[in-house]
Amino acid sequence: MAKKTVLVSGGAGYIGSHVTVELINAGYDVVVADNMSNCDMTCFEGVKKITGRDDIPFELMDCCDTAKVQDLFGRYKIDAVIHFAAFKAVGESVAQPIKYYRNNLDSFLNILDASIAHGGCNVLFSSSATVYGETDKLPVTEESPRQSATSPYGNTKQICEDILRDVIKASAAYGTEVNAGASAQGPVKGIALRYFNPIGAHPSALIGELPRGVPNNLVPFITQTAIGKRACLSIFGNDYPTPDGTCLRDYIDIVDLAKAHVAAVSRMLDGKMKKDYEIFNVGTGRPVSVSELVNAFEKVNGLKLNYKYVDRRPGDVVAIWADTRLANEELGWKAERTVEETLASAWAWEKHIAGIE
Ligand code: UFG
Question: Does residue 130's CB lie within 6 angstroms of at least one atom of ligand 1?
């Protein structure tokens, strides 16, 4: 049987590069499209080394460019798309909402429109647990209500989920004549994966997270503090109503997360979906506090981290973790790496980019 081809938009970034590796390991052909707005070629080069594949097609392009996206779908026979190409800094989105709405929505609309125009497609959208907002009904299931987003970034995740749902619904109800631009053709099916907190790096330490400037997220801040790029980690709040007073999150290993994408793509391509639009939580199901994570990092890597407790960060939810049963049962996928293994991989990657090991 001919190999299936998966387009990975944003495939040179943190999550995209790990997903590309796992797709290739699973026997798919991959086309990577990226405008490199938030990364350099480090991870794509790492992907080539890990997979031993020097021939992965790479398209330097912006998915907001309608003509280029249409052209791309004309040049490759794309069986499924995984759409990562989006901005993701919560604080920046509050300051620059138009930039976020334009980029994150336009790129997704272009991908959907081109998918339909070229015979239909299976679309995997990279969503976020941010859609659940603050709730005391934990863990959250896929049925848990979404809540008003607290940032334009979060809102783009909700809106893109809704766009995908509506496009799929229209495709099923009316065919695609009315569902897209002039050249509408094929049907659309899709899955939204709601990620919890992806952390860590590939065990090879050849790909990982490369934040630009001061990291917003916890683990890159920890590793940069450990290596001396940052003087001190600030732990935002130790007076939350949690066992140790710090926030609880569901930290999911990046390779486990990548494997969930392969399971979801295979489900779409192998005709195993139960509905045309499905949603799955991608997490471990285990809450870990910020203090626990810092302690685990120190222990597994045998070092002491400089940190202090400071005020709460505005907008943080107290606690969120996933009910993973649906993903476990339907995708046949389960998070496997321990948080210690993941934190060791994050440290190995930080040392790798610092040229230490
Ligand atoms: N934290 C610190 N110090 C830091 C950074 C983070 O104490 O320097 C704490 C945060 O307060 C939070 C936890 O570490 O309690 C995790 O913070 P992250 O920024 O790593 O992750 P978030 O849970 O805030 O963010 C995640 C995703 C975002 C998404 C957001 C919505 O990374 O994409 O959830 O809540 F928008």
Answer: yes
